[in-house]
Amino acid sequence: MPGDERPHASGEVVPGLDEAIPLLTGGTIRILGLLPRSSNYTFLARVSEGGREALAVYKPRAGEAPLWDFPEGTLCHREVAAYRVSQALGWPRVPPTVLREGPEGPGSLQLFLEFDPEEHYFTLAERMPDAFRRVALFDVVVNNADRKGGHCLLASDGELFVVDHGVCFHQHIKLRTVIWEFAGDPIDDELGRDLERLRMDLGDDLRTQLDPLLSARELEAMRERLDALLRSGTFPRPGPGRPYPWPPV
């Protein structure tokens, strides 16, 4: 269960999700190696403190490839902002993520979760439609420009987690996702209430959390996207611009 400590396959004691943030924030980071197939320098690391340790994904700012449409050195901030928005919404499940100093300089550090490498959006969509409705709405809110199928992971506890949120929160609409099957569908009342609560939180505690991570215009744009969702009461349709990421997985 989330919040319970559990043994990891490699033998270390891994904190439950509720206890991961203190370990990620204060633990000692030891880099184990580069993760393959990443467009930026992304490291698998071990984080340890006081007899507890866990695997984590470390993305240093210095390893971010420059992008023409996102400010340089901000992708790690966006990873953390996406986690905090998911926490405020209550969904989807994004692994605990912090911004901190590491062996290669400041960057994001995210708890690594065991997952089934054979599963992804295209294998899970029909089995987990409710979870993917939440992912689809979340991606609209954070303006995810790169929701590939492989960013949707089936964790060892049977729950869906989503990762890789470095290109979110742009002030202009850049939603590119493989999850379009809900386009035009009504947003159910429960999810609508969650969106309304998030809209209110943006004027309070959540705004304080996001201020150091995103620009004022990016925060305003997120508020505008929320307002548009609440006015329409429906999942948006593709566009403007290219609506799909590449590659899709």
List keywords for this structure.
alpha+beta; 9 strands; 7 helices; disordered N terminus; two-stranded antiparallel ribbon; globular; 249 residues; single chain
Task: Describe the model.
By secondary structure, this protein is of the alpha+beta class. The protein is built from seven helices and nine strands, in the order E-E-H-E-E-E-H-E-E-H-H-E-E-H-H-H. Strands 3-4-5-7-6 form a five-stranded antiparallel beta sheet, with helices on both faces. A two-stranded antiparallel ribbon has the order 1-2. The protein has a two-stranded antiparallel sheet with strand order 8-9. A hairpin with a 5-residue loop joins strand 1 and strand 2 (13-14). Helix 5 (189-201) packs antiparallel against helix 7 (216-232). The radius of gyration is 17 Å and the shape is globular. The two termini are 29 Å apart.
- Series of H and E elements: EEHEEEHEEHHEEHHH
What is the quaternary state of this protein?
A: single chain
Instruction: Please estimate the helix content.
Output: 25-40%
Q: What global shape is seen?
A: globular
Unreliable segments of 5+ consecutive residues: 1-15
Query: How many runs of DSSP E, i.e. beta strands?
Result: 9
Radius of gyration: 17 Å
Distance between the termini: 29 Å
Mean of all residue-level pLDDT scores? 92
Structural class: alpha+beta
Fraction in beta strands? 15-25%
Number of helices: 7
Main sheet: strands, sense, barrel: 5 strands, antiparallel
Q: Largest sheet, order of strands side by side? A: 3-4-5-7-6
